[in-house]
């Protein structure tokens, strides 16, 4: 069967890789818009400490975190070793014993169904600072050894290269759906028609635009996320854990002194990729309050990405209404780098008629279409 995948972010790349590994004919189309969430993202693979209570959403990120180690091993077998993925652990910092003990209770409860969390340890302020030197000495932490970091751009490129090694074809261009009756026959891209048995749409924040040619208008919104990159000269940051402060931002480190602070959550309906000083100030102000040691860091840049959301902030996964051969997955939001590779593997199963582990009624596509 021939599949066209529109959108080569983390979700589309994973879907393409898993289909190509099964011997399916795969064409990936992406126009490389600036502001793609995957390209801007630095991912935290640590869903277990979330305060969000939606069970259907939690199941996706739980399985996403569980899936990563085997995926990374598979990619390594394909010769793809540059993924930015590393099991560095995570610390959730708090300034009182009461808060620490409460989070320890949550973590230990979550571990009952997620042994991959690894060791859960309450750390003193001294132990916390030993793991993450810039942090203020007033914070203790809960340490989760099984947590990881991932570089969105790197892992996406690794998936796409692996897909192409298995026969997938990549086209850089703007795809327009070509429909006849209740089926889409393929797409028009760069002035040429490309035919397929099935079209899989995974183009995130740009999904509404694509479907308008079919008089379908999915309720896909997006947030602008700005993410600051710093460099600490001389610091050995390779093994620093992900840091989860007691507010809705994060800090994570890569090698060579690189520290990333994210992310803003800006409601918008414009693809405005400008870096704004208000966003940079917001991120640095909060980061320096909990990690004053970052004051010596050099500002490098700020990346901008648009995170897609669907109604209820719950992803949609399944076939589009009125069309028999359009699969859609969208709305992964801020957790796309955690859940995207896993959802892509399950979407590939759905595309070739295999049983999926997803409970699809929880992610009903029609909920997002007017």
UniProtKB/TrEMBL annotation:
**Which superkingdom, per the lineage?**
Bacteria
Give residue ranges for domain FAD dependent oxidoreductase: 4-350
| Keyword Secreted found | no
Query: Which GO molecular function entries does the Swiss-Prot or TrEMBL record give?
Result: oxidoreductase activity
Alphabetical keyword list: Flavoprotein, Oxidoreductase
Which residues, by range, are in coiled-coil regions? none
The UniProt entry, under SUPFAM superfamilies, shows: FAD-linked reductases, C-terminal domain, FAD/NAD(P)-binding domain
Which cofactor does this sequence's record say it needs?
Answer: FAD
What's one GO-annotated cellular component? cytoplasm
What family does this chain come from, according to its entry? Answer: Belongs to the DadA oxidoreductase family.
Name this polypeptide is given = Oxidoreductase
* Record organism: Halobacillus mangrovi
